[in-house]
Amino acid sequence: MIRILHSVSNMDRAGIETMLMNYYRRIDRSRIQFDFLANKPKPGAYDDEIRAMGGHVYVSPGLAPWQYPAYLRFMKQLLADNPDIRILHAHNEGMMEYALRGAEKAGLPTRIAHAHNTRIIKDYKWPLKVFCKQFIPHSATEYFGCGRDAGIYYFGKKRWEARGYTMHNAIDPERFRFSEETRRRTRMALGLGDSFVLGHIGRFNLQKNHGRLIEIFAALLAVKPDAVLLLIGEGELEQQTRDRAKQLGVEKQVRFLGVRSDIPALCMAMDVFVIPSLFEGLPVVGVEAQATGLPCIFSAEVTDEVVILPASERIPLSASDETWAQAIAACDGAKIDRARSIVPVQQAGYDINVETEKLTELYLKWAERKRAT
């Protein structure tokens, strides 16, 4: 058995982490085992499940600049103590350079850099992330991306077209097959009645653009006063989003549901899914939502690769709130066979069963490479 070390932030319920768990649950663990390198000390929601499946969760010294020498020493010791770790698979935006460089110095022959986004958030770490990003193509041996645009952003068009591999944000289609009974029960549990329900799943941060979503929702209420907005997730801008809803007088129609494990049921309860992000790679929640037959309204900043259903579309962020509201309202009563919507999702390459087999072949092939001494 070989082990793959995934470098992550921590294993909470978020897009990258959920995608990894989808693959982990499907992969043949008698041949391939996943371990996780958490770069934040905070325990993750998936930690117990990982350990139950035979995986390990290691905690690094952290990604602060002054920790870089300690980080390299940590990686060298970790890989020396665990020779069955044959591949590093890194997922940490620009900061994945730490794990990649550490694994390179430790002699690990296969180091995968995985691009998940088309921009880097301009927070206090932005200069450091951008600085580190330029070294990633040289520290990595393999280039992965959730899609074309993310791969080009991180590795450049020439490298991506020559050596890039799209690892789809795949899902278990059967978990998301629409059920009218599940929709009824979930709406009843949430007290939604016959309301027109918008949904959004995402961390409350700058990228996800929750403030604009609240403004669009306020415009929607002018034409659909029975509308309700469900927000699933947590994050540093949650209170700011609550304040904006109160300022616009829509707080009673906005439900903050926190982090949830029943995403398929919640998507089935919704009538339309909205992602007005400032930038994205390829959001797995968009794939999940469409698998349940939900029409999705994405910002034009989200890659066009995410549009799977004919009822889904992309709208520029420069368009007015009223334009967004009209597009959302037009989804009410859209003729969609929701139970059949998993078929185009599977055909587009997002079936976890098929994609896991492809990934397994790559891992096993690259695991044959010999470590440098």
Report the sheet-strand fraction: 15-25%
CATH topology of the largest domain: Rossmann fold
User: Cα distance, first to last residue?
Assistant: 22 Å
Give the proportion of residues in helices: 25-40%
For the record, the CATH class of the largest domain is: Alpha Beta
SSE arrangement, N to C: EHEHEHEHEHHEHHEHEHEHEHEHEEHHH
Number of beta strands: 13
Shape from CA axes? globular
Number of separate helices: 16
Strand order of the largest sheet: 3-2-1-4-5-6-7
Computed CA radius of gyration, to the nearest angstrom: 21 Å
Structural class based on helices, strands and sheet pairing? alpha/beta
Tally of individual domains = 2
Q: State the CATH superfamily name of the largest domain.
A: Glycogen Phosphorylase B
Largest sheet: 7 strands, parallel
Fold and architecture overview:
The longest helix is centred in the C-terminal third of the chain and has 15 residues, at 352-366. The protein is globular. Helix content is 39%, strand content 17%. It is an alpha/beta fold. The model has no long low-confidence stretch (mean pLDDT 94). The chain has helices spanning 15-26, 47-52, 68-81, 96-105, 126-133, 136-139, 148-155, 157-163, 180-190, 210-221, 238-247, 263-269, 284-291, 321-329, 342-347, 352-366; strands spanning 2-8, 32-38, 57-59, 85-90, 110-115, 142-145, 164-166, 197-201, 228-232, 254-258, 272-275, 296-299, 313-315. The strands form two sheets. It has a seven-stranded parallel sheet, sandwiched between helices. A six-stranded parallel sheet has the order 10-9-8-11-12-13, with helices on both faces. It folds into two domains: 2-170 and 351-366, Rossmann fold, CATH 3.40.50; 173-347, 3-Layer(aba) Sandwich (Rossmann fold), CATH 3.40.50. The two termini are 22 Å apart.
